[in-house]
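Retro notes, item 3 of 5
We never archived the inputs for the fe (ii) ion complex last cycle. Fixing that now. Sequence and ligand:
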Amino acid sequence: MLNNQNYVQLSLELHLFFARIMKEHSFFLEAGFQGKDQNYKDIAHDFQMNFAGLLNQVTDLSNRNVSKSALDSQEFITNQTLAAEKKTSELSGIPIDQNLTRKEMNLTSGVTQPSEQLINQVRNINRRALPLIENLITFKNEVLNQVLTCRMYTTNYPLLINHIIQEAKMYYDLLSKIERREILSLQEFYEQELFWNNIMMEHAEFIRGLLDPSEKKLILTADQFAMEYEKMLQTFRNRPLDLKQASIQETMKFQQFNLAGITGILDCKIRSIILPLLADHVLREANHFIRILNQYRSY
Ligand SMILES: [Fe+2]
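Structure as it came back at the time:
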């Protein structure tokens, strides 16, 4: 059973990572719809605002209530997030609240014994977040269905829409477990490891497909990452300890590739149809994966 302190800390850390991810998924959906699907754009925008509101509340409660390792991992925001948001907002014409990011930049770590009031506030946030995530999953499923039946054109790949559905489900499952005060079992951790390796593989595939055809070297590198992740998942499917070592090594390399990606895109040195915020988003997910791998290093 999770004690009060872990309950508060794990809830806040989960939201700081995933509520932003959901907010950005909603943004990517909004930006990808065509003009004729304005109603879809509006719904996606509402989700973006709702998750921004959630993230804002969570940030207010997080000062000195989250761990140093989580804060330092740059999974909540990176050094490039603010610049990526500014540029993406300019390019798309869709507003992004950068004050929220500035507020997150000022967070301080520390874990203290939570007050009754804080526990209640966190419980309220968790119970509000669950139906919101569920609604977003329903919406993403509807979009995927429209695309797969050729009733909608969007600039987001079908695999990307499916990918963001899987991430929302992971958020929902982890939050439900925290809300029931369950501690993750080793088996569950191992499943998470498989999940994130698969996510990393798909990121490599998305990057490969969104680069300009003239970026031959980068396309080749992205393709190599995709193949390496695929091979790793096959080789170590039933060997958790070996998978963990391989995951850390591979993802630290991939993290550097992602970092070079966001830097090159912000500097206008890479030709692609990748929005800067998407490049920053995948880097944060790699940072998150490395942090949880290190956290479970002991077993
Ligand atoms: Fe992702």
